[in-house]
Write a structure and sequence with these properties.
Helix content: 25-40%
Strand order of the largest sheet: 3-2-1-4-7-6-8-5
Shape: globular
């Protein structure tokens, strides 16, 4: 029997789950079992948990459906636990170094207490000093083990479930499980303290709790706030017959929570009066004999609740809010418009006035606006979605946003608007659907009822979003992270092509959007293109008949100025073999719109479609570009040229070690690179095996149907269960390579 069972629910936090599990496995004290609770087989968290279980036998994942909620996940973990003491850890929290050793030492001192409460840190998700809210409460307790009657203020209500260790036999004896519904920590903590006979405290930090950027989901508006009273009633019922000194403190703390919600009507869009009346009935039915309400404004609220005086309570609440607003210097008439006042507007006065007017007009339910790469042209996933929408949702009017120099590249039949024009601001103001692979300008207002779809434009190997903050060179180029996150707040949907991306986007771009694990629409063509189309594209790009076209696509270096191929391509062609030609595609930062081809080097940087270029290539050479993840869908050879991996990793930051899990052979010098092509090993058995493992990890959802899923879900509002299921990787047939076409 292990000393500790550590239960880690994981729903919605797969991106940070590995940090939580690693913090447990790194503990100096090793007598524990670690129980991640996952949504089910195949879920993002299940893959993380399975990976850890494969590396450490102490990890024993279990499943609990998302419909069971946090309480169901914790109770499922509790049933699987075999340890003497049970701890709970949220999936995006971590154990402090040495935490388990400190708990074991304290329990050795105190003996087998029912509950050991401990301190925790609340860490701001972005910046600011951590706080330790439990420290003042625990500082007032006796030095050793004690009866709860000695410290009636320690009720468990003010502490989360993950701020204590619980003796499992005690929980089983009293049949304590997590109550269903929301606010489960309150119901759990209150009932545990009522049942406990011998407790102790550890005055040191055990858990580091990450405060989510969006705040607690419990504080969002909704009918779930009525469930708070269910938990309060549960605790009050369990506390019947409790000694007066304990029942008074418990009662006061419970109704402090109730009154906090009652005084915030925005949390209860409906049924606020019913909430107040039910709370009043509970107050009157369970008020302990001799209980005296606290002083001040809170005491007045107690008395109004006890008498059921809702109208008076509402008036008091309004008066308090006016006082707070005046203290902040916010006139009541302006309180609702503060957020609008901060939104940048178009620069020209006439355009600003028109945009403001259009924002007051109704949304057009049949208007969709698209943009790719900040207006560089009709490209990427937005273009793929637009084309599929014209096919499946012809009633939707599509407008693509482009810069003036990209107008000629817009296909015939596709409506467009030039960025900054009058039409540009008009369609942005009235569109119901807005689709982008980057971000719309800061001045674009997210209107209620509009739907923003973020398609992304690659799988993240390098650090992205707020994860860039610890890399000075990258952070300086990124600009304001606050503005970045304001743009993220406009997203309703974020598209993912693989589970890795789902987890990394969650970390890099924390927001309230819904992730659509549908695959990248731009990658559909890798499964739908025909041999004739591959031949046509090669002819358009100027690839000589019968030659092996090798795509060379290096990524941007944050520590360099300007574009450098990093490789003598003419020398490579000469060394690699007579039949090799190189398609050079620089990062889009260096697209000057003109080709600079020479000899056996064909510059395709300015070609509109990276998908076309990939289809034309028989093999890919890249360093750390995300193009490798897309190209892997074609199941063609990939070679990594990593001459500066260590420098890149240190200056840019990466999410995983590419050298440990490459999609093909890794070369470090021009000679090594030429050799793998000269001897054919670039396409040999070892290369094939590496590519198969890479595809299994990163080609989860790309199967040729991504754009259809997006259109049906977003534009046609079809339920997720009716969408085309993802075709298993083994059953997908990629577009044929030119070598197959020739044969």
């Amino acid at each position: 029997m292990p000393r500790f069972s550590i239960i880690v629910p994981s729903h919605g936090v797969a991106g940070r789950l590995s940090l939580a599990l690693d913090s447990v496995l790194a503990q100096s004290y090793g007598d524990f079992e670690l129980i991640p609770v996952c949504d089910g087989p195949g879920s993002p968290a299940a893959e993380v948990a399975a990976d850890h279980a494969g590396q450490d036998s102490r990890v024993a994942p279990v499943d609990s459906p998302p419909s069971a909620g946090l309480s169901g996940a914790r109770t499922t973990g509790l049933r699987a636990a075999t340890g003497t003491y049970v701890l709970f850890l949220d999936g995006d929290d971590t154990l402090a170094p040495g935490a388990l050793a400190a708990l074991d030492a304290r329990l050795t001192e105190t003996g087998d207490v029912d509950v050991l409460y401990f301190e925790h840190e609340r860490t701001p998700w972005w910046e600011g000093e951590p706080t330790n809210p439990a420290a003042p409460l625990l500082a007032k307790t006796p030095a050793g083990a004690f009866s709860p009657a000695q410290t009636p203020q320690l009720t468990g209500i003010q502490l989360p479930a993950w701020s204590a260790a619980y003796r499992r036999a005690f929980l089983a004896e009293h049949r304590l499980t997590f109550p269903e519904g929301r606010f489960t920590d309150l119901g759990w903590g209150g009932r545990v303290t009522v049942a406990a006979e011998r407790v102790a405290v550890l005055r040191s930090v055990v858990v580091r709790h990450l405060l989510r950027r969006q705040g607690s989901r419990l504080n969002l508006p909704g009918d779930h706030h009525h469930q708070l009273l269910d938990q309060v009633e549960l605790v009050l019922t369990a506390a019947q017959g409790l000694a007066p000194e304990r029942s008074h403190a418990l009662f006061e703390q419970l109704f402090a929570v109730v009154l906090k919600t009652a005084s915030r009507p925005e949390r209860l869009p409906s049924g606020h009066r019913a909430f107040f009346r039910r709370a009043g009935r509970l107050y009157r039915a369970h008020r302990p004999a001799g209980f005296r309400a606290p002083g001040g404004s809170l005491g007045v609220q107690h008395r109004l609740l006890a008498s059921g005086a809702y109208t008076a309570f509402k008036a008091l609440r309004g008066a308090n809010r006016s006082v707070v607003g005046a203290a902040m210097g916010v006139p009541p008439s302006r309180a609702k418009s503060r957020a609008w006042g901060k939104v940048p507007r178009p620069r020209m006065l006439r355009t600003r006035l028109r945009y403001a007017r259009d924002l007051r007009r109704p949304l057009d339910p049949d208007l969709a606006v698209y943009c790719a790469y900040w207006g560089r042209g009709y490209a990427c996933s937005p273009a793929a979605i637009e084309a599929k929408a014209r096919q499946l949702a012809p009633h939707i009017r599509s407008v693509f946003l482009v810069e003036p120099d990209a107008v000629d590249a817009v296909p015939k039949g596709v409506e467009h608007a030039v960025i900054g024009s009058r039409k540009y601001w008009e369609v942005l103001a009235r569109a119901t659907y807005l689709v982008n692979n980057a971000n719309f300008a800061e001045g674009v207002v997210k209107r209620p009822g509009s739907v923003h779809v973020q398609t992304q434009h690659g799988t993240p190997l390098k650090k992205m979003g707020v994860d860039q903050s610890t890399y000075p060179v990258v952070a300086a180029a990124t600009g304001s992270f606050a503005k970045l996150l304001a743009r993220v707040d406009r997203w309703d949907y974020n598209i993912s092509s693989n589970r890795h991306s789902t987890q990394m986007w969650e970390r890099a771009f924390p927001g309230s959007y819904e992730t659509l694990e549908y695959g990248y629409p731009r990658n559909d063509v890798y499964y739908t293109a025909t041999a004739d189309e591959v031949t046509r594209i090669r002819r358009e790009l100027g690839v000589p008949e019968g030659k092996t076209a090798v795509l060379y696509a290096p990524t941007h270096r944050d520590y360099r100025t300007g574009f450098d191929t990093g490789l003598d391509l003419e020398a490579f062609c000469a060394a690699a073999g007579e039949d090799v030609v190189v398609l050079l595609r620089a990062h889009y930062f260096y697209d000057q719109g003109r080709a600079e081809s020479s000899g056996r080097i064909i510059d395709v940087t300015g070609h509109r479609s990276s998908e076309d270029v990939c289809l034309a290539a028989d093999a890919l050479i890249t360093d750390y570009s995300s193009i490798m993840f897309d190209y892997a869908n074609l199941d063609r050879p990939i070679v990594v040229y990593a001459d500066d991996w260590e420098v890149y990793r240190e200056t840019r930051g990466v999410y995983f070690d590419l050298m440990e899990a490459p999609p093909g052979p890794v070369t470090r010098t021009p000679e090594e690179l030429a050799q793998v092509f000269r001897d054919g090993s670039y396409a040999g058995a070892e290369s094939t095996a590496l590519r198969a493992a890479f595809r299994s990890r990163f080609c989860d959802f790309d199967d040729g149907l991504a754009a259809e899923r997006v259109v049906r879900r977003v534009f046609l509002s079809e339920p997720p269960e009716t969408l085309p299921p993802v075709i298993p990787l083994a059953e997908r047939v990629p577009a044929p390579a030119a070598t197959l076409v020739r044969s």
